[in-house]
Every structure is written in C-alpha cells, then in structure tokens.
Amino acid sequence: MRIIIVGGGIGGICAALALREHGIDSIVLEQAKALKEVGAGVQIAANGALVLRRLGLEKGLDAMSVKPVSLEYRDMESGKPMVSWPTGQKSTELYGAPLYNVHRADLIEMLASALPQECIKFNARCATIGQSEDGAWVKLESGEIIHGDAIVGADGIHSVVRETLYGPAEASFANLLVWRALIPAERIKDCNLEERGNYWVGPGRSIVSYWVRPKKLYSFLASVPATEVHRESWADSGDVNDLLRSFHGAEPRVQRMLESIDSAFITGMYYRDPLTRWTEGRITLMGDSAHAMVPYLAQGACQAIEDAWVLARCLARHGANAINGGLLEYEDRRRPRTTRVQAAARSMVKLVHEADQGRINARNGRWKGMARIDPLGQTTWSFCWGYDVIQAADEPSGNVLGLAATREGAKMQRPESQRAFDLWKNAFSQEDVARGYDGMREAYDRLLLTNFPAPPTMQVTPIEMGGVACLRVGAKHRRPGSTVLHFHGGAYVIGSAQGSVEYAGRLAEAVDGECITVAYRLAPEHPYPAAIDDAINAYRGLLDSGIAASDIFLSGESSGGGLAVALAISLRHAGLPQPAGIVAACPFADLTLSSDSLTQFHGDDPAANRDMLSYLASSYFQGHEPTDPLVSPVFGDLHGLAPMFLGVATNEVLFNDTTRLAAHAKAAGVDVTVKTVDDSVHVFPVFSFLPEAREFVDEFAAWARLRQRGAIRQSVAA
C-alpha cells in the first residue's frame, strides 16, 4: 500500500507516522514551501500523548513542552477563582499521561523529523483528485500527478478533498472572534503566570493562556463577541488597541498581560457540522477536514492524532486488497466519537461565553456543584482524556461511544425495547447537545410530545395549586377517585409538565381519578430549594382544595421520583399528613452519583450517563450539600413515610438508586414494593408501547386500590 496524505499539519504527519508504524508507505503533500513557525499554542492531552508514546515521540514532546499543574478558571473582573481542575501528575495517575502545552511549530517539527525526508513533499498544492478501481491519484497545481492506493484528506477546515467529495459548504461561524499571540517571557515576568492553564471568564468573552516553552514563551488566546471587531482572516494582524478595549475593566494581571502584547492575529471562530459520510471508495477524511472543532476542550489536535492511529490500524487489518473496507471501518470507529467531542466542545464554548448575568450566575453555581461531586473534573474531561485509542482500535467497533455516550453496537433483546432504546439514543442531536440545557430541554419535550401526546380521552387543564403552575389531567367528566400529584423527570433541569401528560393520563385512570402534574421551577436558573418548595406548595394547595391526604398519591419518574420521596420527608418535618402512597419510576435518588450501577451500565444506557447526570445534578444543588436528604433522599431518615411502589430496569445506570432507596426505606419500616424489569430502559413506564409499562401501571392501580381501601377502613374506625 501507498497512501497519499493531503495536508502536512499535525494530523497528516501523525497519519504518516502511524502508517509507517504499521508497515504502510505514505507520502504527505504539503502546500507550504517549508515548515514555518506559524500558529500558537497546542494542548496535547493524554489521549493524544498515548499515541505519540507508541510512536516513540513522547520523550521529545516532554522535553520541549510545559506540563501544567492545573486548569484555573478565574473571574475576568475580580480575578477570584471559579473552578480548578488538576492536571500534571494527577492527569498521569488518572489517564496514563499528563497534559502537555507546546508550540504548534515545535510539535510539527518534531513529528516531521521522525519521518524520512522523502515522505513529505513541500510546495505541493493539490489541484484535483481522483480514483479508479485500482488506485487513486492527486494532480498538483504544478501538473505533477502523484499515484497511490488511497487518499486521506488532512487539509483542514477548508479542505479541497472534502469539497471534491461532497461539494462546497460554508463553515459555521460561532459568533466569536479569536485573538492569538505569543508573548516572550521577559515581557510578562511581573505577571506571576504560573505553569498552569490560566483562564479568565467574563460576560461574553474569555482568555485561555499557558506557557508553551518553559520560562520562554507564553501562548495567549482571547475570544470576544463578533460585533466588537470586524476581521475574520487568520492572516490579518489585529489592532491591539481593539483587544485592549474588549477587555477594559479586567483584573490588573490581565491588563498587564494585554499591555505586553505588541501584535496579535485575529480570526473568526469556525466549526463544521458532522458529516454523514467521510469515505468514498479509496478516499477519506481526517482531522479538521472531517470534524473541525472549536478550541475549548483541547481536542482539535488530539482527535486528529486519534484519527491517525485508527486509520493506520484499520488499513493494516484489511490489507491492500480491501482498502475501502479498511477506510469504512476507520470511519465507523471515528465518526461517532468525534461527533460527541465536537458537540461537547461547542457546549463548552457556550458555557464559557455566557453574557446574561442570570445565566452567568447559573453557570458559576453549576461549577460549584461539580466541585463537590467531582473535584478532579473527570466528568468534564475523562471522556476525552481518558480514551485509550490504541486499545479501542483493537476492540469491536461497536464498543465506540457515540453522541449519547452509548456503545454503537449496544442492542436490546426485544423489538419493542429496542424501539424505546432507539428513541432515547436519538433524543438529543449534536446541535441540541451543543446548545447546552436550552437545546436539551427542547429535545426532551420533542421526544415526549411527539411520541406520547395527551390521550384524546383525557382533558388537560392549566391550574394553580398553592401558587404553583400545574396541569390537571383526567377524564372529561370528573371521577370520584384519588388524585395523583406527579413530578416529571429530567434531572431538575429539563422536562416539563406538558411532556408528562400522556403518562399522567394513565396514572389518572389507574386511580379512577385525576393526575395533577406540577410545572416546578427548573435549574440552573432556579436551583435547590426551588423544586422542593414548589412541591410542598402544590401539596398544600391540594389539601387546601379539600382533598384529603388519604386520597393523594405522590408520583414521579427519574428526578421526579426522587422529588416525590423528598416531598414526603418534608411533609413529615412540617407535621403535615402523609399521602396514601408514593409511586416512583426509576427514581434519581442520589445526586452524589455514588451508585455502582453508574459504572456497571456505562455505555449501555442511552438515557443517562455519569457525565450528563453530573452536569444536570450539579446545576440543581449548586452550592448546596448534595447529601442533603431533600436533594438525595437515599441519605434521608425515611421513618414514617407513606408506602412506596417503585419500578426500575435492571440494566439502567440508576438501578442502584432504586435498590438502595428501597432497602433504606424497608429498614426504616416503610412498606415498599419494587417492580424490576429486565431488558428495558430508564423510566420505562413512560414508554406506553412497552408491555412492562402497561404492567407497571396496572400493578400500581391494584396497589393503590389496596391503599385506598385501607384508608377507608381507618377513616370508618376513627
């Protein structure tokens, strides 16, 4: 085999090195006349460093780079610390290698020097490409034709290879402009800039800075709203006065750093949406040509390095007679992962550049919460940094985790459970994830309202209970049965009363009465205790309306189930009567995320994973203690609570939240019934087409009738 690589950047040269490691010949076509000292800082996390180690290059990287001790986020105006994540030795312990900060030119020179000179052809600008059954070719602008067995487009965000395969397409603009500069050490010696990631965050703007040559050269990257400066080209030098104006009012250390900059490049921040295909015959894409990313997870270079290793491994595995098969396997392994990383990087950009003060406060509160349950930042960084691509490339391709953090090859045993699995897996698009909780809210409601609309036999009426907005769901003619007070799921951040009306209708039928589904306030705008306060007020409203506690059932799914139990604890504290019972489907009862099933079923549950749950849970409790029983009822005193009817799937990440809650409640003398189901999904009762969903509601109906009869006997006896 001889592989033609178009583009001599980090990804292209790493591809040539990885191919050479696997005994495959290649030639890199680079349009520049020679390697030049262009660009600024590059961060190589463990997932990239492990590949360079395998290629025998990590020692060279270590010698020329800086290993930051931590990543420090500070407030732009005050300089006060906001969040800190350890790197350095701690990163090595967690992920197998430290985080390296290096000058891009130094890195490329090191990579290129590891290749024989004849493997890189400079001044080789690609004009056209083509392929046949027997091979592929690149015609240069000079007229020379380079022949090979396959072509790899590693030519960046403006890729000629990608445009040839799939036509022209504009890159997406992130509405931010980026200033880049390199600062000699002597200019900033009084700034006290330690060997850390020194980051500052302000309204709509940020600074990312770090040493790239030990005690010699400092990298500076600043992002500002696109409306502040009118330049887009990388080749443009910006007016430093514009830069100073954009950061007027920043803390003194930032001001001194800015004043040390003589010149800076300015460019638009661009990205590309994931392609549905990377490969056509003998031609494929890698790096920014396939998945251009915004620079906020230190993954642009690392994902290209991962691509390089998997490309070489797959071509070596398939051999010269099955090149297309090797390229397709490479794409199958890489496209799901890079799509997930792209979305996460965009969501980080949105998070860091919030401009509204309320949203800034919510973000800062979330960071406080995450520091409580994840002080090492693993849920933020480990899915990138902790990925061993060398090991993964030799595992079944179905083990790759895609956008939903679910193994691409994961399957259910039954067609109906597979249908529910697929609904969960495809609930959030890349755009939804990139938009943070705004996109996730819209997507979750879209999932529920599209697939589970309000039943025509039920009437849905907006009401207030105790000053809290609710929806009354029940038969068009009021029945004399019980009332279910229901709390929707969504980890206190997403979900809505409207999205739960179909399930609420079935609960109303189960008690031959009505269901009141509560539109409690959502985090991060309304952190704890907003949800529990709304729950208490809604319950008081029911009592004030004349409904007896013995005619009320509390209900919830996922976080709503945890909220229902927390409400029962609050009622006991307040001296209010307990309801007739509590029905909780797959309750999220431990927001410290300490259940073993979170690890056991990671990658198999398309509805939830530790990374997502930590993001959502910390958005709720923020600066509050997550072991508070009104946040995590699994830690509460459950004595005297109403009987519980719990349901959970045995293969979901919150399985142990339910089993721990049940065991704790039983130990406190609570009457607990648990329905477990195999081969199902999180909050399975919501998926009305599942047989186990119908069984759950039917069994709850029978359970509720027993509680109702018991309440009647107690009333008569009294």
Summarize the structure.
With 718 residues, the chain is an alpha/beta fold. 39% of the residues lie in helices and 21% in strands.
Characterization of this structure:
The structure is a single chain. The chain starts with a strand and ends with a helix. A hairpin with a 2-residue loop joins β19 (458-465) and β20. It is α/β, with parallel strands linked by helices and 718 residues long. It is built from 24 helices and 26 strands. Helices cover 39% and strands 21% of the residues. α12 (357-373) crosses α22, α18 (501-510) crosses α24 (691-717) and α19 (530-544) crosses α20. The protein has an eight-stranded mixed sheet with strand order 5-4-13-14-15-12-17-16. An eight-stranded mixed sheet has the order 19-20-22-21-23-24-25-26, sandwiched between helices. The radius of gyration is 28 Å and the shape is globular.
What attributes characterize this protein structure?
718 residues, alpha/beta, eight-stranded mixed beta sheet, 24 helices, 26 strands, 21% strand, globular
Q: What secondary-structure arrangement, pairings included, does this model have?
A:
Blueprint lengths: L1 E5 L3 H12 L3 E5 L11 E4 L1 H9 L3 H7 L5 E6 L5 E6 L1 H8 L4 E4 H10 L6 E2 L4 E6 L4 E5 L4 E4 L1 E4 L6 H7 L5 E13 L12 E6 L2 E9 L3 E9 L11 E2 L1 H7 L5 H8 L4 E8 L11 E3 L2 H4 L8 H19 L4 H30 L4 H17 L4 H8 L3 H4 L22 H11 L4 H5 L2 H15 L6 E8 L2 E8 L7 E5 L13 H10 L3 E5 L11 H15 L7 E6 L1 H16 L6 E5 L11 H4 L9 H12 L22 E6 L5 H13 L4 E6 L13 H27 L1
Parallel strand pairs: 1-2, 1-11, 2-7, 4-13, 11-18, 21-22, 21-23, 23-24, 24-25, 25-26
Antiparallel strand pairs: 3-6, 4-5, 8-9, 9-10, 12-15, 12-17, 13-14, 14-15, 16-17, 19-20, 20-22
